[in-house]
Amino acid sequence: MIRVLLVDDQPLIRSGFRALLDLEDDIEVVAEAADGKEGLALARQHLPDIALVDIQMPVMDGIEVTRRVAADPALERMHVVILTNYGMDEYVFDALRAGAAGFLVKDILPEDLLHAVRVAARGDALLAPSITRKLINRYVTQPLNSGLDKALEELTNREREAVALVARGLSNDEIAGRMVISPLTAKTHVNRAMTKLHARDRAHLVVLAYESGLVTPRDS
């Protein structure tokens, strides 16, 4: 059972998402919150698998919620998915850096929302292809993270290749096909790269790939 926490200051958004999610046999909404502070308290109380968090809220916004979740060992198994009204705004970039597993626009189709919750529960990144290009373009305007140089040196060539494919948005199965290896081996390469680069999840791995210069828009 995938346990979900809804955090949004708009009651209609919460009720709509809850009605949809509660229809699924493998998904359960365990709590709702109208602001980030309340959401953080409920997260610590219920320990959900996924928190769908609005990026702009009173009291505490989604970026701060994400930052505090990432810093709390008790919540290390919870994935924060940011909800936004726009395909890409200035706050989404900061939320991903803070540790969000990905982001969704609020007018997402019902079937896409259900798929996204299940993808996030598996620990995969939620970076919609239609938005990833804007995200990439935003990253290359930022200073590269030179502190990653030493960590990058520890990656094998195959691990580097796997990271580059993750940054393009490929799943483990797709990476396996591209690298002509088994899905299990692909997963191993990705997991080892995450460990060496101290990536929290696949979304963070994408962030590090672009910040370090390992991957550039020309490669994607």
From TrEMBL:
<dbReference type="GO" id="GO:0003677">
    <property type="term" value="F:DNA binding"/>
</dbReference>
<dbReference type="InterPro" id="IPR011006">
    <property type="entry name" value="CheY-like_superfamily"/>
</dbReference>
<dbReference type="InterPro" id="IPR058245">
    <property type="entry name" value="NreC/VraR/RcsB-like_REC"/>
</dbReference>
<feature type="modified residue" description="4-aspartylphosphate">
    <location>
        <position position="54"/>
    </location>
</feature>
<keyword id="KW-0804">Transcription</keyword>
<feature type="domain" description="HTH luxR-type">
    <location>
        <begin position="148"/>
        <end position="213"/>
    </location>
</feature>
<dbReference type="InterPro" id="IPR039420">
    <property type="entry name" value="WalR-like"/>
</dbReference>
<dbReference type="InterPro" id="IPR001789">
    <property type="entry name" value="Sig_transdc_resp-reg_receiver"/>
</dbReference>
<dbReference type="GO" id="GO:0006355">
    <property type="term" value="P:regulation of DNA-templated transcription"/>
</dbReference>
<dbReference type="InterPro" id="IPR000792">
    <property type="entry name" value="Tscrpt_reg_LuxR_C"/>
</dbReference>
<keyword id="KW-0238">DNA-binding</keyword>
<dbReference type="Pfam" id="PF00196">
    <property type="entry name" value="GerE"/>
</dbReference>
<dbReference type="Pfam" id="PF00072">
    <property type="entry name" value="Response_reg"/>
</dbReference>
<dbReference type="GO" id="GO:0000160">
    <property type="term" value="P:phosphorelay signal transduction system"/>
</dbReference>
<feature type="domain" description="Response regulatory">
    <location>
        <begin position="3"/>
        <end position="121"/>
    </location>
</feature>
<keyword id="KW-0597">Phosphoprotein</keyword>
<protein>
    <submittedName>
        <fullName>Response regulator transcription factor</fullName>
    </submittedName>
</protein>
<keyword id="KW-0805">Transcription regulation</keyword>
